[in-house]
């Protein structure tokens, strides 16, 4: 790092950039996308791979070391491996990860690995084809399982499974996921449902809290023990079953927000910088990139965006306003 770090007004240092590569997706999870009539971004509005690399080369000297590719579904973006190849080659990028729904993973695991990707998070909320269809409004459960198996075979490590937990819907998945974690060697992370759905149907009553899941596991399966020291900047708290087999994580975004230690910011597929998942304002980096702004001008815009970041989300407050962009359009 050869410049001042990216600090916000509360002194939080921003080292983790999440890049959305598309808003398109091949499934329709109810907590993220509308069921139909989705209006996707115009292709010419998407940042090109060259532009994404330019953004990464701009922020690495400001202390960014960790990058995650997301979407929409990142694997529907053509030649994603090419982007991976470009980004792992940027000096200073110490950690590149990808979050995917896994539908296209079986076909792409090998080329992604060959391009230099190692860390993979696969989203899967249920362990039966019927429940998968209910949540995603599409078929594809077997393809996700095949994708996870292919990724393991190729050598990806770690592979984490992201399961959004929804009250009244996914309680019955908790114990099967515990068994899956033990048998597959993948860490399963239960994520609290956040108000980022396109239908604005989120209610607090639909959030299945991390503490409740821990309790269900302890009573119906086996108690959990914390793993290692907590890392405040990592949202997931990690546990292992009492017999030492099977890792489980919890991402309690609603009940125990981790905003005080947030080190993340995002760029949408159409090049808008967002200091928080729940931001109501964005910085139009694409216009600067395409308008021929100097590096200094762009760096100043990034710094200004981060500086004004708020202390944390307001999900639990009366003044909460859901952002206009749903999760698929922000980049999860
Ligand atoms: N509140 C909040 N939740 C987030 C944020 N980033 C990710 N999440 C939630 O955490 C879940 C897991 O995120 P992933 O994309 O798998 O990545 P990660 O856990 O940040 O990645 P690693 O720590 O590198 O494994 C997402 O599905 C979101 O629900 C964030 O900035 N704020
Ligand atoms: C938006 S998706 C993008 C990447 C990819 N399509 C996938 O599903 O992994 C990233 C993550 O956000 C999570 N997510 C989406 N909507 C959410 C919500 N309303 N609350 C909590 N997590 C959500 C998904 O479960 C997924 O793990
Ligand atoms: S969570 Fe991921 S897979 Fe599901 S609809 Fe959103 S972008 Fe697609
Ligand atoms: S909600 Fe905003 S401030 Fe809180 S952890 Fe997520 S991105 Fe950071």
TrEMBL record:
Keyword Thylakoid: no
Protein purpose: Catalyzes the cyclization of GTP to (8S)-3',8-cyclo-7,8-dihydroguanosine 5'-triphosphate.
Binding residues annotated for GTP, in chain numbering: 18, 68, 99, 160, 264-266
Functional pathway: Cofactor biosynthesis; molybdopterin biosynthesis
Domain of life (superkingdom): Bacteria
EC number: 4.1.99.22
GO biological process assignments: Mo-molybdopterin cofactor biosynthetic process
UniProt binding sites for S-adenosyl-L-methionine: 31, 72, 123, 194
Subunit structure: Monomer and homodimer.
Key words of the record: 4Fe-4S, GTP-binding, Iron, Iron-sulfur, Lyase, Metal-binding, Molybdenum cofactor biosynthesis, Nucleotide-binding, S-adenosyl-L-methionine
A molecular-function term among this protein's GO annotations: 4 iron, 4 sulfur cluster binding
Similarity field: Belongs to the radical SAM superfamily. MoaA family.
Species this chain originates from: Planctomicrobium piriforme
Positions of [4Fe-4S] cluster 2 binding: 259, 262, 276
Reaction(s) catalysed (UniProt annotation): GTP + AH2 + S-adenosyl-L-methionine = (8S)-3',8-cyclo-7,8-dihydroguanosine 5'-triphosphate + 5'-deoxyadenosine + L-methionine + A + H(+)
Classification via SMART domains: Elp3
Pfam family, one: Mob_synth_C
Cited InterPro entries: Aldolase_TIM, Elp3/MiaA/NifB-like_rSAM, MoaA, MoaA-like, MoaA_NifB_PqqE_Fe-S-bd_CS, MoaA_twitch, MoCo_biosynth_MoaA/MoaC, rSAM
Name under which the protein is recorded: GTP 3',8-cyclase
């Amino acid at each position: 790092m050869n410049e001042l770090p990216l600090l916000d007004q509360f002194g939080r240092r921003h080292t983790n950039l999440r890049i959305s590569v598309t808003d398109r997706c091949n499934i329709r999870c109810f907590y993220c996308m509308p069921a139909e009539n989705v209006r996707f971004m115009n292709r010419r509005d998407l940042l090109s791979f060259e532009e994404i690399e330019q953004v990464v080369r701009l922020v690495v000297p400001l202390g960014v070391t960790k990058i995650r590719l997301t979407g929409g579904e990142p694997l529907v973006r053509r030649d994603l491996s090419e982007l991976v190849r470009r980004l792992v080659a940027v000096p200073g990028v110490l950690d590149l990860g990808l979050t995917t729904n896994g539908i296209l993973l079986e076909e792409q695991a090998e080329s992604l690995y060959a391009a230099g990707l190692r860390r993979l998070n696969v989203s899967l909320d249920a362990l039966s084809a019927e429940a998968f269809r209910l949540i995603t409004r599409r078929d594809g459960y077997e393809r996700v399982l095949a994708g996870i198996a292919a990724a393991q075979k190729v050598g990806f490590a770690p592979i984490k499974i992201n399961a959004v937990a929804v009250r009244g819907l996914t309680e019955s998945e908790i114990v099967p996921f515990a068994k899956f974690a033990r048998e597959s060697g993948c860490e399963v992370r239960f994520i609290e449902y956040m108000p980022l759905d396109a239908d604005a149907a989120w209610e607090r009553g639909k959030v299945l809290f991390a503490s409740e899941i821990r309790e269900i596991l302890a009573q119906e399966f086996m108690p959990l023990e914390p793993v290692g020291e907590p890392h405040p900047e990592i949202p997931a708290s990690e546990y292992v079953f009492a017999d030492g087999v099977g890792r489980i994580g919890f991402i309690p975004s609603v009940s125990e927000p981790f905003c005080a230690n947030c080190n993340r910011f995002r760029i949408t597929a159409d090049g808008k910088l967002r200091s928080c998942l729940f931001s109501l304002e964005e910085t139009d980096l694409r216009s600067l990139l395409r308008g021929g702004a100097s590096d200094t001008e762009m760096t100043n815009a990034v710094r200004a965006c981060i500086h004004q970041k708020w202390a944390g989300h307001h999900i639990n407050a009366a003044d909460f306003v859901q952002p206009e962009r749903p999760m698929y359009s922000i980049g999860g």
